[in-house]
Design brief:
This protein is of the alpha+beta class. It contains five helices and 15 strands. The radius of gyration is 21 Å and the shape is globular. A hairpin with a 2-residue loop joins strand 5 and strand 6. The protein folds into two domains: 107 residues; 144 residues, no CATH class.
Length: 295
């Protein structure tokens, strides 16, 4: 359990470093052909962004997109201006993204707010922000991409193989049920990094859960949260492996509480965009029901 929380703290530390450091401007997306130069750091006339009318090729909010150019730039605002920071790293060709908002028309481009998706086994922090969907001549830089969704997982190992953002795209708030092992935590996180996310049970930076969950197959921990309204009757897990309790759990991504998630400073600035915080909460799998196995 301590290792799980240490990993979370280290991951969050890297987020703080990535989001709090100085961003050095670099070239924007470079299409595979040679069209008009894409959004750069050169300010354009100030024009208020506007929501684009729904086009036939618009990518729906809540769907996945796929980058179809090399080095697509992510910006902090949907516009080309000095107020719109250039974020790094650039997004590579083939990178999947989850569409959070858009399209928004500004600076001659249509923009989508996106959460890039890590490939399986990849841990690099990728920038949350706005990308232009196409060059001014119509050459696409971002297109819709249907996720490859397996049937609902029947085992904890199958659930563990689901990347959170892909799980959100595939299953939304659909309830998923699978067997697992319930654990009494030995200790809590114990590290305050100066900011957290409220509600703490869903995405806090120093979580102190009532229970932990592990795979039946190999006892590896699962990255889940436990709904505070969970009925705990009949649940008596222990700390030692021999005392872990075999259970059947039910839960879902996109918990109702996710939309209320917000950053809270405990002395340090919150380094995440408010919309990114909500996305992190929406991609957290919340356990809402636990039954002892065989009950």
């Amino acid at each position: 359990m301590r290792l799980r929380h240490l990993g979370l703290v280290l991951a969050i530390g890297s987020i703080v470093a990535a989001c709090g450091g100085t961003v050095t401007p670099s070239p924007s997306a470079s299409p595979t052909s040679t069209p008009t130069p894409p959004p750069s750091s050169t300010p354009s006339p100030s024009v208020a962004p506007s929501v684009s009318p729904e086009a036939d090729d618009a990518i729906p909010i809540g769907a996945l997109g796929r980058v179809v150019t090399s080095d697509l730039r992510v910006r902090s605002k949907p516009e080309v201006s000095d107020a719109s920071a250039l974020l790094t790293p650039l997004l590579d060709n083939g990178r999947q993204v989850y569409v959070v908002a858009g399209p928004v028309a500004a600076s001659g481009y249509d923009w989508y707010q996106v959460q890039p998706v890590n490939a399986a086994g990849e841990s690099e922090e990728l920038p949350f922000g706005w990308v232009a969907a196409a060059d001014k001549d119509g050459t696409p830089w971002l297109v819709g991409d249907a996720p490859e969704c397996d049937a609902s997982p029947e085992t904890a190992a199958q659930f563990a193989a689901i990347r959170p953002i892909i799980g959100l795209a595939c299953y939304g708030s659909e309830e998923l049920t699978f067997p697992a092992r319930l654990i009494q935590p030995e200790a809590t996180c114990g590290v305050d990094i100066g900011w957290t996310i409220d509600p703490d049970w869903l995405a806090g930076t120093c979580p102190q859960p009532k229970y932990l969950l592990a795979q039946v197959e190999n006892d590896e921990f699962l990255d889940v949260a436990f709904d505070p309204d969970l009925d705990t009757a009949g649940l008596e897990p222990g700390v030692e492996t021999a005392d872990w309790q075999d259970v059947v759990v039910t839960g879902h991504f996109d918990h109702d509480a996710a939309e209320s998630c917000k950053g809270v400073s405990n002395g340090e600035p919150v380094p995440l965009d408010p919309a990114e915080i909500v996305m992190r909460c929406r991609a957290t799998f919340a356990i809402t029901e636990v039954q002892p196995a065989g009950s």
